[in-house]
Design goal:
Alpha-Beta Plaits, alpha+beta, 2 domains, 12 helices, about 20% strand
Amino acid sequence: MDNETHARFLDAIDRWLLAHRAGLLARVGALVAFPTPSPPGRNTDIAQRAIAAWFAELGGEVAWLPVYPGDSDVVGRWPAATGATGRSLLFNGHIDVAEVAEEGWESPPFALTEREGRVYGRGVGDMKGGLAAAIFALEALRACGARPGGEVIIESVIGEESGEWGTVACIERGFRADLAIVPEPSGLRPCGQGGVITGWVTIQSPQTLHDGVRARTIHAGGGLVGANAIEKMMRLLAALNDLERHWAVTKTYPGFAPGATTINPAVIEGGRHPAFMADRCALWITVHFYPDERWEDVTGEIEEHLRRAAAADPWLRDHPPTFAWGGRSMIAERGEIFPAVALDPDAPGLAALGRAHAAIHGEAPVATMWPSVSDAGWLARAGIPTIIYGPGELAEAHTTNESIAVDDLVDAARVYARLIAEWCGLEVAP
Protein backbone atom coordinates (compact mmCIF):
# COMPACT_ATOMS: atom_id res chain seq x y z
CA MET A 1 0.00 0.00 0.00
CA ASP A 2 1.47 3.36 -1.02
CA ASN A 3 1.73 6.26 1.44
CA GLU A 4 -1.21 8.19 -0.04
CA THR A 5 -3.55 5.22 0.18
CA HIS A 6 -2.29 4.45 3.67
CA ALA A 7 -3.04 8.03 4.77
CA ARG A 8 -6.55 7.86 3.28
CA PHE A 9 -7.26 4.66 5.19
CA LEU A 10 -5.98 6.20 8.43
CA ASP A 11 -8.24 9.21 7.96
CA ALA A 12 -11.25 7.02 7.16
CA ILE A 13 -10.64 4.77 10.17
CA ASP A 14 -10.30 7.74 12.52
CA ARG A 15 -13.47 9.36 11.21
CA TRP A 16 -15.32 6.04 11.58
CA LEU A 17 -14.26 5.74 15.22
CA LEU A 18 -15.35 9.30 15.98
CA ALA A 19 -18.70 8.68 14.29
CA HIS A 20 -19.30 5.39 16.09
CA ARG A 21 -18.58 6.33 19.70
CA ALA A 22 -22.08 5.13 20.60
CA GLY A 23 -21.17 1.74 19.17
CA LEU A 24 -18.08 1.58 21.36
CA LEU A 25 -20.13 2.47 24.44
CA ALA A 26 -22.64 -0.22 23.54
CA ARG A 27 -19.82 -2.77 23.41
CA VAL A 28 -18.45 -1.59 26.75
CA GLY A 29 -21.93 -1.69 28.25
CA ALA A 30 -22.46 -5.23 27.03
CA LEU A 31 -19.30 -6.35 28.82
CA VAL A 32 -20.03 -4.41 32.02
CA ALA A 33 -23.44 -6.14 32.18
CA PHE A 34 -21.71 -9.46 32.90
CA PRO A 35 -20.92 -9.66 36.65
CA THR A 36 -17.39 -11.03 36.70
CA PRO A 37 -15.93 -10.06 40.09
CA SER A 38 -12.83 -11.89 41.28
CA PRO A 39 -12.96 -13.03 43.95
CA PRO A 40 -15.03 -15.15 43.91
CA GLY A 41 -14.24 -15.81 40.25
CA ARG A 42 -15.44 -18.86 38.30
CA ASN A 43 -17.99 -16.61 36.61
CA THR A 44 -16.46 -15.32 33.37
CA ASP A 45 -17.38 -17.93 30.76
CA ILE A 46 -20.64 -16.20 29.81
CA ALA A 47 -18.81 -12.92 29.21
CA GLN A 48 -16.04 -14.74 27.37
CA ARG A 49 -18.56 -16.32 25.01
CA ALA A 50 -19.69 -12.81 24.11
CA ILE A 51 -16.07 -11.82 23.44
CA ALA A 52 -15.58 -14.97 21.34
CA ALA A 53 -18.67 -14.09 19.28
CA TRP A 54 -17.28 -10.58 18.72
CA PHE A 55 -13.96 -12.04 17.59
CA ALA A 56 -15.74 -14.37 15.17
CA GLU A 57 -17.87 -11.49 13.87
CA LEU A 58 -14.64 -9.71 12.97
CA GLY A 59 -13.30 -12.73 11.13
CA GLY A 60 -10.87 -13.84 13.79
CA GLU A 61 -9.69 -17.35 14.57
CA VAL A 62 -10.99 -18.06 18.06
CA ALA A 63 -9.21 -20.18 20.68
CA TRP A 64 -10.97 -21.19 23.91
CA LEU A 65 -8.61 -22.01 26.81
CA PRO A 66 -10.22 -23.45 29.98
CA VAL A 67 -8.29 -22.37 33.08
CA TYR A 68 -10.71 -23.07 35.94
CA PRO A 69 -14.31 -24.34 35.91
CA GLY A 70 -16.34 -21.34 34.79
CA ASP A 71 -13.24 -19.30 33.95
CA SER A 72 -11.72 -19.64 30.48
CA ASP A 73 -9.44 -17.44 28.40
CA VAL A 74 -10.54 -16.57 24.89
CA VAL A 75 -8.06 -15.51 22.22
CA GLY A 76 -8.80 -13.94 18.85
CA ARG A 77 -6.17 -14.19 16.14
CA TRP A 78 -6.06 -12.42 12.81
CA PRO A 79 -3.16 -13.91 10.80
CA ALA A 80 -1.00 -11.75 8.60
CA ALA A 81 -2.16 -11.19 5.07
CA THR A 82 -0.57 -13.54 2.55
CA GLY A 83 2.75 -12.09 1.47
CA ALA A 84 2.56 -9.23 3.99
CA THR A 85 5.65 -8.38 6.01
CA GLY A 86 4.16 -6.43 8.91
CA ARG A 87 5.12 -7.08 12.52
CA SER A 88 2.79 -8.86 14.93
CA LEU A 89 0.89 -7.11 17.72
CA LEU A 90 -0.83 -8.52 20.79
CA PHE A 91 -3.40 -6.87 23.05
CA ASN A 92 -3.97 -8.45 26.47
CA GLY A 93 -6.81 -7.51 28.82
CA HIS A 94 -8.57 -9.19 31.73
CA ILE A 95 -12.33 -9.76 31.74
CA ASP A 96 -12.60 -10.15 35.53
CA VAL A 97 -13.23 -7.11 37.71
CA ALA A 98 -12.71 -6.12 41.33
CA GLU A 99 -15.21 -6.96 44.04
CA VAL A 100 -18.23 -4.68 44.36
CA ALA A 101 -19.34 -3.06 47.61
CA GLU A 102 -23.07 -3.41 48.21
CA GLU A 103 -23.56 0.20 49.21
CA GLY A 104 -22.57 3.60 47.86
CA TRP A 105 -23.19 3.17 44.14
CA GLU A 106 -25.23 5.98 42.60
CA SER A 107 -26.18 3.72 39.70
CA PRO A 108 -26.19 -0.08 39.28
CA PRO A 109 -22.57 -1.28 39.05
CA PHE A 110 -23.33 -3.78 36.29
CA ALA A 111 -25.33 -1.43 34.10
CA LEU A 112 -23.41 1.18 32.12
CA THR A 113 -24.61 4.67 33.02
CA GLU A 114 -23.55 7.81 31.17
CA ARG A 115 -23.63 11.29 32.66
CA GLU A 116 -21.67 14.47 32.05
CA GLY A 117 -19.20 12.93 29.63
CA ARG A 118 -18.35 9.89 31.74
CA VAL A 119 -19.62 6.33 31.94
CA TYR A 120 -20.02 4.50 35.23
CA GLY A 121 -19.93 0.80 36.05
CA ARG A 122 -17.67 -1.83 37.50
CA GLY A 123 -14.81 -2.49 35.11
CA VAL A 124 -15.23 0.51 32.80
CA GLY A 125 -11.67 1.53 33.63
CA ASP A 126 -10.20 -1.67 34.98
CA MET A 127 -10.37 -2.90 32.38
CA LYS A 128 -13.31 -3.87 30.20
CA GLY A 129 -13.23 -0.39 28.65
CA GLY A 130 -9.64 -0.71 27.48
CA LEU A 131 -10.19 -4.25 26.20
CA ALA A 132 -13.28 -3.15 24.26
CA ALA A 133 -11.38 -0.19 22.79
CA ALA A 134 -8.69 -2.51 21.42
CA ILE A 135 -11.23 -4.82 19.79
CA PHE A 136 -13.20 -1.83 18.48
CA ALA A 137 -10.06 -0.49 16.81
CA LEU A 138 -9.85 -3.71 14.82
CA GLU A 139 -13.55 -3.43 14.04
CA ALA A 140 -12.90 0.04 12.61
CA LEU A 141 -10.25 -1.32 10.24
CA ARG A 142 -12.62 -3.98 9.01
CA ALA A 143 -15.49 -1.49 8.57
CA CYS A 144 -13.25 0.72 6.43
CA GLY A 145 -12.11 -2.07 4.13
CA ALA A 146 -8.65 -2.56 5.62
CA ARG A 147 -6.88 -5.36 7.42
CA PRO A 148 -3.61 -5.52 9.36
CA GLY A 149 -0.54 -6.44 7.35
CA GLY A 150 0.91 -8.33 10.31
CA GLU A 151 -0.73 -10.72 12.73
CA VAL A 152 -2.94 -9.27 15.48
CA ILE A 153 -3.79 -11.25 18.61
CA ILE A 154 -6.27 -10.13 21.27
CA GLU A 155 -6.36 -12.05 24.56
CA SER A 156 -9.28 -11.75 26.96
CA VAL A 157 -7.96 -13.43 30.09
CA ILE A 158 -9.33 -14.38 33.47
CA GLY A 159 -8.22 -14.04 37.05
CA GLU A 160 -5.91 -11.02 37.00
CA GLU A 161 -7.64 -9.41 39.98
CA SER A 162 -6.86 -12.50 42.06
CA GLY A 163 -3.34 -13.10 40.80
CA GLU A 164 -4.44 -16.05 38.69
CA TRP A 165 -2.45 -17.21 35.71
CA GLY A 166 -4.89 -16.56 32.87
CA THR A 167 -2.21 -14.76 30.88
CA VAL A 168 0.30 -17.49 31.67
CA ALA A 169 -2.14 -20.00 30.15
CA CYS A 170 -2.03 -18.04 26.88
CA ILE A 171 1.77 -17.94 26.97
CA GLU A 172 1.92 -21.67 27.64
CA ARG A 173 -0.28 -22.22 24.58
CA GLY A 174 2.31 -20.42 22.47
CA PHE A 175 0.71 -17.06 21.76
CA ARG A 176 3.51 -14.59 21.02
CA ALA A 177 3.97 -11.30 19.19
CA ASP A 178 6.62 -8.71 18.38
CA LEU A 179 4.89 -6.23 20.71
CA ALA A 180 2.23 -6.44 23.43
CA ILE A 181 -0.05 -3.67 24.66
CA VAL A 182 -1.88 -4.06 27.98
CA PRO A 183 -4.79 -1.54 28.13
CA GLU A 184 -4.79 -1.06 31.90
CA PRO A 185 -5.91 2.41 33.11
CA SER A 186 -2.68 4.34 32.69
CA GLY A 187 -4.19 7.69 31.69
CA LEU A 188 -3.08 7.01 28.09
CA ARG A 189 0.55 7.12 29.21
CA PRO A 190 3.00 4.38 28.21
CA CYS A 191 4.14 2.61 31.36
CA GLY A 192 6.30 -0.12 32.74
CA GLN A 193 5.70 -1.49 36.23
CA GLY A 194 7.36 -2.84 39.31
CA GLY A 195 6.76 -6.38 40.47
CA VAL A 196 4.97 -8.02 43.39
CA ILE A 197 5.23 -11.38 45.05
CA THR A 198 3.48 -12.68 48.14
CA GLY A 199 5.02 -15.19 50.48
CA TRP A 200 4.53 -17.11 53.70
CA VAL A 201 7.13 -17.11 56.46
CA THR A 202 6.39 -19.92 58.92
CA ILE A 203 7.77 -20.80 62.33
CA GLN A 204 6.90 -24.30 63.55
CA SER A 205 7.74 -25.76 66.94
CA PRO A 206 8.29 -29.52 67.10
CA GLN A 207 6.34 -29.67 70.36
CA THR A 208 3.01 -28.36 71.60
CA LEU A 209 3.32 -27.08 75.16
CA HIS A 210 0.53 -26.39 77.64
CA ASP A 211 0.03 -22.86 78.85
CA GLY A 212 0.78 -24.09 82.35
CA VAL A 213 4.46 -24.72 81.58
CA ARG A 214 5.15 -21.30 80.05
CA ALA A 215 6.92 -20.14 83.23
CA ARG A 216 9.44 -22.97 82.89
CA THR A 217 10.34 -21.81 79.35
CA ILE A 218 11.00 -18.16 80.19
CA HIS A 219 12.47 -18.02 83.74
CA ALA A 220 15.82 -19.02 85.15
CA GLY A 221 15.98 -22.58 86.29
CA GLY A 222 12.87 -23.61 84.42
CA GLY A 223 14.70 -26.40 82.68
CA LEU A 224 12.34 -26.57 79.70
CA VAL A 225 13.56 -25.31 76.33
CA GLY A 226 10.53 -24.20 74.38
CA ALA A 227 9.13 -21.14 72.66
CA ASN A 228 5.98 -19.34 71.66
CA ALA A 229 5.99 -19.18 67.86
CA ILE A 230 4.08 -15.89 67.83
CA GLU A 231 6.70 -14.21 70.00
CA LYS A 232 9.49 -15.59 67.83
CA MET A 233 7.77 -14.22 64.77
CA MET A 234 8.04 -10.76 66.33
CA ARG A 235 11.80 -11.04 66.00
CA LEU A 236 11.47 -11.83 62.31
CA LEU A 237 9.00 -8.98 61.84
CA ALA A 238 11.54 -6.58 63.27
CA ALA A 239 14.17 -7.98 60.92
CA LEU A 240 11.86 -7.47 57.94
CA ASN A 241 11.32 -3.86 58.99
CA ASP A 242 15.09 -3.37 59.08
CA LEU A 243 15.49 -4.85 55.60
CA GLU A 244 12.67 -2.72 54.21
CA ARG A 245 14.35 0.43 55.53
CA HIS A 246 17.68 -0.70 54.09
CA TRP A 247 16.08 -1.16 50.67
CA ALA A 248 14.55 2.30 50.87
CA VAL A 249 18.01 3.80 51.35
CA THR A 250 19.95 1.67 48.87
CA LYS A 251 17.55 0.88 46.02
CA THR A 252 16.21 3.30 43.40
CA TYR A 253 14.62 3.16 39.95
CA PRO A 254 13.52 5.98 37.63
CA GLY A 255 9.81 6.67 37.82
CA PHE A 256 9.36 5.41 41.38
CA ALA A 257 9.30 7.39 44.58
CA PRO A 258 11.98 6.47 47.14
CA GLY A 259 11.03 3.54 49.29
CA ALA A 260 8.71 1.86 46.79
CA THR A 261 10.34 -1.52 47.49
CA THR A 262 8.18 -2.40 50.48
CA ILE A 263 7.69 -5.52 52.56
CA ASN A 264 4.16 -5.47 53.93
CA PRO A 265 3.28 -7.85 56.80
CA ALA A 266 -0.29 -8.34 55.60
CA VAL A 267 -1.69 -11.31 57.55
CA ILE A 268 -0.51 -13.22 60.59
CA GLU A 269 -1.88 -16.57 61.74
CA GLY A 270 -0.78 -18.42 64.85
CA GLY A 271 -1.68 -20.46 67.87
CA ARG A 272 -4.43 -22.95 68.45
CA HIS A 273 -6.10 -22.24 71.83
CA PRO A 274 -5.51 -20.10 74.94
CA ALA A 275 -4.66 -23.25 76.86
CA PHE A 276 -1.54 -23.81 74.78
CA MET A 277 1.60 -21.98 73.83
CA ALA A 278 1.52 -21.14 70.13
CA ASP A 279 3.43 -23.91 68.35
CA ARG A 280 3.02 -22.36 64.91
CA CYS A 281 2.96 -18.88 63.44
CA ALA A 282 2.71 -17.97 59.76
CA LEU A 283 3.22 -14.47 58.35
CA TRP A 284 1.85 -13.55 54.92
CA ILE A 285 3.87 -10.77 53.33
CA THR A 286 3.59 -8.73 50.13
CA VAL A 287 6.88 -7.68 48.55
CA HIS A 288 7.29 -4.95 45.92
CA PHE A 289 10.40 -4.85 43.74
CA TYR A 290 11.79 -2.73 40.92
CA PRO A 291 11.84 -3.51 37.17
CA ASP A 292 15.57 -4.30 37.25
CA GLU A 293 15.02 -7.06 39.84
CA ARG A 294 13.82 -10.66 39.58
CA TRP A 295 11.55 -12.10 42.22
CA GLU A 296 13.92 -15.04 42.64
CA ASP A 297 16.70 -12.67 43.73
CA VAL A 298 14.45 -10.55 45.95
CA THR A 299 13.01 -13.53 47.82
CA GLY A 300 16.49 -14.96 48.16
CA GLU A 301 17.61 -11.73 49.80
CA ILE A 302 14.70 -11.90 52.26
CA GLU A 303 15.38 -15.53 53.12
CA GLU A 304 19.07 -14.88 53.74
CA HIS A 305 18.28 -11.88 55.96
CA LEU A 306 15.74 -13.77 58.04
CA ARG A 307 17.99 -16.81 58.41
CA ARG A 308 20.73 -14.53 59.74
CA ALA A 309 18.24 -13.01 62.18
CA ALA A 310 17.13 -16.48 63.26
CA ALA A 311 20.73 -17.56 63.79
CA ALA A 312 21.08 -14.85 66.44
CA ASP A 313 18.26 -16.40 68.51
CA PRO A 314 19.05 -19.59 70.48
CA TRP A 315 15.68 -21.25 69.75
CA LEU A 316 15.23 -20.05 66.15
CA ARG A 317 18.77 -21.18 65.38
CA ASP A 318 17.56 -24.76 65.82
CA HIS A 319 14.09 -24.12 64.39
CA PRO A 320 14.61 -21.74 61.48
CA PRO A 321 11.71 -20.34 59.49
CA THR A 322 10.47 -21.93 56.30
CA PHE A 323 9.33 -20.05 53.21
CA ALA A 324 6.70 -20.49 50.51
CA TRP A 325 6.58 -17.94 47.69
CA GLY A 326 3.97 -16.92 45.18
CA GLY A 327 1.32 -19.13 43.67
CA ARG A 328 -0.94 -19.39 40.65
CA SER A 329 -4.02 -18.03 42.44
CA MET A 330 -4.90 -16.01 45.52
CA ILE A 331 -8.20 -17.90 45.55
CA ALA A 332 -6.92 -21.45 45.19
CA GLU A 333 -3.39 -21.15 46.61
CA ARG A 334 -3.31 -17.93 48.66
CA GLY A 335 -0.37 -16.63 46.69
CA GLU A 336 0.43 -14.50 43.65
CA ILE A 337 3.28 -13.22 41.49
CA PHE A 338 3.35 -10.24 39.15
CA PRO A 339 6.70 -9.88 37.39
CA ALA A 340 8.05 -6.40 36.71
CA VAL A 341 8.23 -4.63 33.33
CA ALA A 342 11.12 -2.37 32.38
CA LEU A 343 10.44 0.38 29.84
CA ASP A 344 13.63 1.81 28.39
CA PRO A 345 13.54 4.90 26.12
CA ASP A 346 14.46 2.70 23.16
CA ALA A 347 12.01 -0.08 24.04
CA PRO A 348 10.54 -1.78 20.96
CA GLY A 349 7.21 -0.25 20.01
CA LEU A 350 7.52 2.79 22.26
CA ALA A 351 8.33 5.18 19.42
CA ALA A 352 5.52 3.80 17.25
CA LEU A 353 3.05 4.11 20.12
CA GLY A 354 4.27 7.65 20.75
CA ARG A 355 3.62 8.60 17.12
CA ALA A 356 0.15 7.04 17.20
CA HIS A 357 -0.64 8.94 20.40
CA ALA A 358 0.73 12.21 19.00
CA ALA A 359 -1.41 11.89 15.88
CA ILE A 360 -4.51 12.00 18.11
CA HIS A 361 -3.36 14.28 20.94
CA GLY A 362 -0.92 16.59 19.19
CA GLU A 363 2.12 15.62 21.23
CA ALA A 364 3.97 12.50 22.26
CA PRO A 365 3.15 11.01 25.67
CA VAL A 366 5.64 10.89 28.52
CA ALA A 367 6.58 7.33 29.43
CA THR A 368 6.58 6.54 33.13
CA MET A 369 6.07 3.75 35.65
CA TRP A 370 2.64 2.47 36.61
CA PRO A 371 2.25 2.41 40.40
CA SER A 372 0.30 -0.85 40.38
CA VAL A 373 0.87 -4.28 38.85
CA SER A 374 -0.73 -6.21 36.01
CA ASP A 375 -0.32 -9.23 33.76
CA ALA A 376 2.03 -7.16 31.61
CA GLY A 377 4.83 -8.66 33.69
CA TRP A 378 4.11 -12.19 32.49
CA LEU A 379 4.25 -11.10 28.85
CA ALA A 380 7.54 -9.28 29.42
CA ARG A 381 8.99 -12.26 31.29
CA ALA A 382 8.11 -14.42 28.29
CA GLY A 383 10.35 -12.20 26.16
CA ILE A 384 7.60 -10.13 24.52
CA PRO A 385 8.27 -6.37 24.48
CA THR A 386 5.37 -5.04 26.53
CA ILE A 387 3.87 -1.62 27.23
CA ILE A 388 1.00 -0.71 29.54
CA TYR A 389 -1.13 1.88 27.77
CA GLY A 390 -4.84 2.31 28.35
CA PRO A 391 -7.70 4.71 29.01
CA GLY A 392 -8.82 5.82 32.45
CA GLU A 393 -7.01 6.61 35.66
CA LEU A 394 -5.77 4.08 38.19
CA ALA A 395 -7.37 6.12 40.98
CA GLU A 396 -10.79 5.05 39.64
CA ALA A 397 -10.01 1.34 39.66
CA HIS A 398 -11.77 -0.78 42.31
CA THR A 399 -13.71 2.25 43.60
CA THR A 400 -17.40 2.67 44.28
CA ASN A 401 -18.85 4.54 41.28
CA GLU A 402 -15.92 3.56 39.07
CA SER A 403 -15.97 5.73 35.95
CA ILE A 404 -14.07 6.74 32.83
CA ALA A 405 -14.27 9.67 30.43
CA VAL A 406 -15.98 8.74 27.18
CA ASP A 407 -13.41 10.77 25.25
CA ASP A 408 -10.63 8.65 26.76
CA LEU A 409 -12.27 5.44 25.57
CA VAL A 410 -12.69 6.78 22.05
CA ASP A 411 -9.19 8.21 21.96
CA ALA A 412 -7.75 4.88 23.10
CA ALA A 413 -9.45 3.11 20.20
CA ARG A 414 -8.14 5.78 17.81
CA VAL A 415 -4.57 5.35 19.07
CA TYR A 416 -4.80 1.55 18.95
CA ALA A 417 -6.02 1.70 15.35
CA ARG A 418 -3.10 3.90 14.34
CA LEU A 419 -0.66 1.67 16.18
CA ILE A 420 -2.00 -1.36 14.32
CA ALA A 421 -1.61 0.54 11.06
CA GLU A 422 1.98 1.59 11.76
CA TRP A 423 3.28 -1.49 13.56
CA CYS A 424 1.55 -4.15 11.49
CA GLY A 425 0.98 -2.21 8.29
CA LEU A 426 -2.31 -1.98 6.40
CA GLU A 427 -3.59 -4.06 3.53
CA VAL A 428 -6.80 -3.73 1.53
CA ALA A 429 -9.26 -6.28 2.83
CA PRO A 430 -10.26 -8.94 0.28
